[in-house]
Target: Aminopeptidase N
Amino acid sequence: MRRLVLPVLSTLVLLAATLPALAQDRRADEHSYAEPDKVRITDLALDLGIDFGLRELSGTAILSLAWADEDHRELVLDTRDLKIATVEARNGSRRWKAMEFVLAPRDERFGSKLTITLPRQYEQVRIGYRTSPEASGLQWLAPSMTAGGKTPFMFSQSQAIHARSWVPLQDTPSVRFTYTAHVRTPADVMALMSADNDPAAPRDGDYSFKMPQPIPSYLMAIAAGDLVFKPISPRAGVWAEPQTVDRAVKEFEDTEKMIEVTESLYGPYRWERYDLLILPPSFPFGGMENPRLSFITPTVIAGDKSLVSLIAHELAHSWSGNLVTNASWKDMWLNEGFTSYVENRIVEALYGKERADMEFVNSRNGLKADLAEIPVEQQVLMLPPRTGSDPEDALGSIAYDKGAWFLQFLEQRYGRETFDPFLRSWFDSHAFQSVSTEQFVAFLRSELMAKKPGAITEAELTTWLSSPGIPAFAPQTASPRFDAVDATRESWIKRRTAARELDTSAWTTQEWVYFLEGLPREVPAERLVELDQAFRFTGTANGEIAQRWYPLTVRSEYFEARPAMSLFLRKIGRRKLIMPTYEALVQTADGLAFAEQIYAMAKPGYHPITSASVEALLAKAKAAPAP
Ligand code: BES
Ligand code: ZN
Model:
């Protein structure tokens, strides 16, 4: 057995940083060192202990292998900050034998390549390892950061390339595998995974899981804490802390109806149960589509179901993403664009076209605003290979909103009677496969374009796929309810109507969002006071409103909002909700100082993904000081 020792490692890190060769080591998927054309993981068996005191997972991972190249004798895996203790291999149920391995120096974005040299093409490899307390894909919460305040909590967030920080594996969406897991926790802690969670499992600190459908690594997930279950329907329910579970069941009571609507459009739900796990407010995303168990931010429990499109979104991934998976992150629109489109269809079916249209308009306004910031070469759906960037940066509106817009364009040109079955057949014929944009385009040509020639032109297709921005011929969504908001806003801006007199009684979150986004970038502070007195934006529990209101107060120097804003930034770790306020703050020297103060207090409660985003923003602002 050979292992690199640390002093050697640090010099190699320096060396490696200067060597472009590292990029060439990542083959099929530029974000993974794995070589799936040589050998693939087909099954993973985990045996892990969760240690809240040490903040680590430790145990073994057994990888079952399918060799594709008969001359190959190496297994290359992705890892990040893992301590690898042992590597063994075997055939059948024979004795495990120790194998040689090299853990390469750590690359800042991609982690450490683990190369295992095998004298023959073994069927199984077993790795003994432990995670680092700083694992980029795990968050460890002290009891004080939970709703109950008594039990610690931990959860994973593997997408895009963080699974490698808690399991050594081929961390690319082009490889799928089944898994089993045996997980040990303190006796009062419940553990869940993206697998067959049994609502009736005794809580005893010893849990077993099975995921019989093959999934890509980014859908590996685990969570543990004081979690209880309440059903919504026979196959759907909510896991949450006892303090949150009833509110969540009420808010998300339409989940079963959402599953039924999606099944009627796109075919059967193929994952048996669909449960929601409500996380503490530090969860860095809105939702994460972990199979059978979507992870959900508590910030969408608004009390009026106004933000449940997020559940529709994560559920929709059970078809677009989890069933038919983007083969690499440059194809992410196949996951997120399709899902945003399906999400809107679910919302339309359950809550009506007015609401679905408002949601489309709001997200497209976000896209239009983002276009000013996104480099033109990244504004396309058909991205060239090796755009080399951090896949996290791809959490952008091009994949989501331009992708969904393209599908809506196809829907309108072909009609739902043709387009809906087409989409269903895309899911059916590629179920449990990883797919590229090129494959989708080929399928589109043969299954849709060839069958109704002339409905769209080649030039239109190419424009959608390969031109920046939004095509001039994209369908436009009108919203009479938003027209009314425009009129109301105008009347207030022109001082024809005082804030208290505005007719907003029937407004939903969508209308408030649209109202706030349509205000001038800066508003005299005393006018914000007037709005605040009428509508109590400062201190709002609705994150979608807070996310737009606080930046406006910053730009408008309405300092009275600062204490509530500071609370919001410290309590919530969902990146999308808090980054706009940090971004507004760092525009001035005084704001930057305030942002740094808040961040220093908030950091212990933030997820590593959120901390990384805030730190990058603060560093950039300090490098180019504001006036
Ligand atoms: N799969 C994404 C979250 C994600 C994307 C995590 C890329 C890491 C990298 C999830 O389905 C998602 O899109 N969540 C959105 C909510 C949605 C309603 C737009 C979010 O978290 O804001
Ligand atoms: Zn998504």
